[in-house]
Amino acid sequence: MSAIRVRFAPSPTGYLHVGGARTALFNWLLARKQGGTFILRIEDTDVERSTKESVDAILQGMEWLGLDWDEGPFYQSDNFPLYKEHVRKLLDAGKAYKCYCTAEELEARRDLAMKEGRKPKYDGTCRDRIDQLDAPFVVRFRAPQGGEVAFDDLIKGRIAFPADELDDLIIQRTDGTPTYNFCVVIDDAIMKITTVIRGDDHVNNTPRQIQLYQALGFPVPQFAHVPMILGSDKARLSKRHGATSVIAYRDMGYLPEALLNYLVRLGWSHGDDEIFSRDEMIQKFDIGNVGRSASVFNTEKLNWLNAHYIKSGDPERLADLLLPHLSSRGVSTLNGPDLVAAVKTLQERAQTLEEMAERAVFYYSAPADYDQAALAKFDKGHLATVYSVVADRLAASAAASAAELDALFKEICTDNGWKMPQVGQPTRIALSGGTQAPGIGEIVQVLGVEEAVRRIRTAHAFVTA
Ligand code: GLU
Q1: Residue 201 alpha carbon to ligand 1 centre in Å
Q2: Catalytic member of 239, 311, 380, 410
Q3: End position of a domain, from candidates 347, 365, 383
Q4: Is any atom of ligand 1 closer than 6 Å to the C-beta of 188?
Q5: Which residue from 256, 260, 255, 296 is spatially nearest to 280, judged by alpha carbons?
Q6: Ligand 1: nearest atom to the Cα of 184
Q7: Phi/psi at 111 (nearest 5 deg)?
């Protein structure tokens, strides 16, 4: 194992967002590539907003994507004594101080600063006070002034902030609980994180965190801030653009390898390559090649990748993954054709498992009605003759494989002077209800000749009624 230690640190206030999943993926890839350690840390110090359901949803999303972690999950809520101890350390060293300013006082000063055109920064009233009051207080970090705080971001390059712009950060609230920026620093330091990869909505936190590392005498890790994912209108990707939860993509019938492949390419590239297996991603990933600008989520590209993985996927695995999509449609596969055989006929054309399930339904239940518009393209007399001839010929034939059955249909056409569509389309309608179905030979093979004949005879009765 190399010394590299990275972490994914979601706040459990909702499901696993695709943006979060991409951050997790980049961390995971770096760890796997370098033989390092990937840690999962649940940032649940915001007790009001953190829920057990969210923790479960995040873990479920990670597991579904196969982003396995080496250590954790650790919960920040288990670490309160640790944070307290470090607040104490800073207080004892004079690097933090108690601030008794009330919310009203702070607000009034902030308003005044705004009115006078100054930055609304804490004015330092309690910075140098030596008396202890018997009043509620917060603990503030005594942020070093003068000069700048700079870091070399692995994605964005050098970023520098004038130290004077950084506030005396509150590290402990009046109720004694530690604040977010403080906990992150303590945890990253104690967990010996070497590289912090996170969303670039945290860039402004980084200089404050660096000052805290330095004040506490901890080595400062490297930082890599990943640009946001945007919706098609260039606004930050949110629910109004469509699904943003990883599990929602599973439920819509995406394969984990397709979503991973899509996410890795969202902001990262390796030449013109588009398709990456898990191993190839690990081999080729380089955090330095992540782009600096935000990426736009493109469902069409995700669909294209999903179709690719469905087409090339193992039919047995796809059949397993398809089952929940069939049961949600009330379809049981127990009394019907072999699902793996059915999947093989649908792999070529389905973009999602939902689509595949929709198209598989007819294998397990005979059409309740027919596509009238499609039927209307044929003369009733022609339909009656085709159904009767095809049913008889099929019933009398020993053809069983898709190829043999296709040959039989060709023969029927030749014998009767029909063109293939004149037989194929009506038969497809009889078997599946519509025209959107796999090749005729394939369908009959999967359904079995007996069931196919039964359906064709039912259609015959329908058109001659
Ligand atoms: N808990 C933070 C979030 O979910 C991540 C903090 C970090 O990665 O430093 O946005």
Answers
A1: 9
A2: 239
A3: 365
A4: no
A5: 260
A6: 9
A7: -60, -45
* Residue 232 in domain: no
pLDDT digits (tens, 9 = 90+) for 22-77: 999 999 999 999 999 999 999 998 888 999 999 999 999 999 999 999 999 999 99
Task: State whether residue 338 is helix, strand or coil.
Answer: coil
Q: How far is the CA of 347 from the centre of ligand 1 (A)?
A: 39
Distance 199 CA to ligand 1 centre (A): 8
- Is 239 known to be catalytic? yes
Identify whether the C-beta of residue 307 lies closer than 8 Å to the C-beta of residue 347.
no
Please say whether the beta carbons of 163 and 146 come within 8 A. Answer: yes
**Residue 34 pLDDT:** 96
| Ligand 1 pocket member 11 (CB < 6 A) | yes
List of the chain residues with pLDDT < 70: 1-2
Q: How many CB atoms are located within 10 Å of the residue 339 CB?
A: 21
Domain ranges, residue 418: 367-465
- Domain co-membership, 264 together with 401: no
Other Cβ atoms closer than 10 A to 255: 21
In angstroms, rounded to a whole number, what is the distance separating the alpha carbons of residues 131 and 242? 56
Atom of ligand 1 nearest to the CA of 188: 9
pLDDT at 436: 86
Residues 34 and 198: their CA atoms lie apart, in Å, by 18
Judge if 442 and 349 occupy the same domain.
Answer: no
What confidence score (pLDDT) does residue 2 get? 66
Q: Which one of 226, 257, 276 terminates a domain?
A: 226
**Which pLDDT score, from 0 to 100, does residue 1 have?**
52
Residue 304 lies in a domain: yes
Q: What is the pLDDT of residue 442?
A: 96
pLDDT of residue 358: 96
